[in-house]
Amino acid sequence: MSGEVEVRWTPPGGSERRCRFSETLTIGRGPDCRILLSDPAASRRHARLTLSARGLEAENTSSGNRFLGPAGAPLKAGDSLALQVGDVLTLAGQRVTIASIELPRRAGPSHVRCSRTDCRRRIPADQADCPWCGTSTAFAETDLGGS
Ligand SMILES: [Zn+2]
Known about the structure:
five-stranded mixed β-sheet; 2 domains; Tumour Suppressor Smad4; mainly beta; five-stranded antiparallel β-sheet; 13 strands; elongated
């Protein structure tokens, strides 16, 4: 299952906007960017946010250094940093707030429990039927146990 990040920003002269993404978000002056920067000094692709199981990362994909991290520290072109909820980036003067981060879950359970009461064996989750009694695993309980 994929995770989700919500970011919020207020374009100059506008009201607060928000958007959600599950993998990557591009920010810049280019028309294909989800967050458009109006400043002519912004790069077409100024920044990229990437969500993975490790967390959320921001990368400075611009050619310059108009990229300030959460503490107001500049991030060099090509560098990246880890982000937390509540962090604010300043990209060519536009503030972008990380409103929420939901990490992607790992792949599903490795085993399920056979639903037939006189069997109840652990079955690898990729099996369509219980190898012992033939019961479909469609109704099997998920079993996150280790052994
Ligand atoms: Zn069974």
